[in-house]
TrEMBL record:
<comment type="pathway">
    <text>Purine metabolism; IMP biosynthesis via de novo pathway; N(2)-formyl-N(1)-(5-phospho-D-ribosyl)glycinamide from N(1)-(5-phospho-D-ribosyl)glycinamide (10-formyl THF route): step 1/1.</text>
</comment>
<dbReference type="GO" id="GO:0016740">
    <property type="term" value="F:transferase activity"/>
</dbReference>
<keyword id="KW-0808">Transferase</keyword>
<protein>
    <recommendedName>
        <fullName>phosphoribosylglycinamide formyltransferase 1</fullName>
        <ecNumber>2.1.2.2</ecNumber>
    </recommendedName>
</protein>
<keyword id="KW-0658">Purine biosynthesis</keyword>
<feature type="domain" description="Formyl transferase N-terminal">
    <location>
        <begin position="2"/>
        <end position="188"/>
    </location>
</feature>
Length: 210
């Protein structure tokens, strides 16, 4: 299967997926890394590993500057033959046309337990700060299908880590991120291999969970 991975930051989740591909745990190919931040760590890693990159340097827009959403769809689907889109630390909203072009084929990872601690502006340390402030004893990553809003699509998988009394957002972020790296390759592998069933109410179930 051909993946397009969208990144805006360091790209450690993308690296975890790439590592899983290289050692045979994930039967896929990263056909493109797409970013709104041309010099972010994720793009640099892709360039260093000969992975095609598509970058859109203008910030503060939810569109892809220089390219309409339908041109983006055309490039991903017809130009590159992308089967699945994986958002790995991509911070912009995905235009609805692009969401619709990949039904049940676009995943996002969020560093908190949705449906709490998500939504517009809830990313990075803000999530962990809110979790600590809430007094919650557990946190963890959520992997979900992407719909047209931030962090609201159907949940596919979650991991849990303890929230410790002495945690800072930074410490909690590191603990959750380690769990993200373990969980994401499993979830993407289930997606590309078709090991997901859909409940009648639209909830996806991993075969390994049932
Ligand atoms: C991760 O915590 C992910 O859950 C969130 O952004 C962070 C990206 O980290 N959406 P990285 O770029 O994969 O290192």
């Amino acid at each position: 299967a051909k993946l397009a991975i969208f990144v805006s930051g360091g790209g450690s989740n993308m690296k975890a997926l790439h590592a899983a591909i290289l050692d045979g745990r994930l039967n896929a190919e990263i056909a493109a890394v797409v970013s709104d931040k041309p010099s972010c760590g994720g793009v640099q890693y892709a360039q260093a590993h000969g992975i095609k990159t598509l970058t859109y340097p203008i910030p503060k827009s939810n569109d892809f500057p220089g390219l309409t959403a339908s041109e983006m769809v055309d490039e991903l689907k017809n130009g590159l033959g992308i089967d699945f889109v994986i958002l790995a630390g991509y911070l912009k909203l995905i235009p609805s046309e692009l969401v619709k072009a990949f039904p049940r084929a676009m995943l996002n990872i969020h560093p908190g337990l949705l449906p709490g601690f998500g939504g517009k502006g809830m990313y990075g340390e803000r999530v962990h700060k809110a979790v600590i402030a809430s007094g919650a004893r557990w946190s963890g990553p959520t992997i979900h299908f992407v719909d047209e809003e931030f962090d609201t699509g159907p949940i596919l998988a979650q991991g849990i880590v303890p929230v410790k009394p002495t945690d800072t957002p930074k410490k909690l972020a590191a603990r959750v991120l380690a769990q993200e790296h373990a969980l994401f390759p499993h979830a993407v592998s289930a997606l590309v291999d078709g090991r997901i069933s859909w409940r009648e109410d639209g909830i996806p179930i991993l075969w390994s969970d049932s």
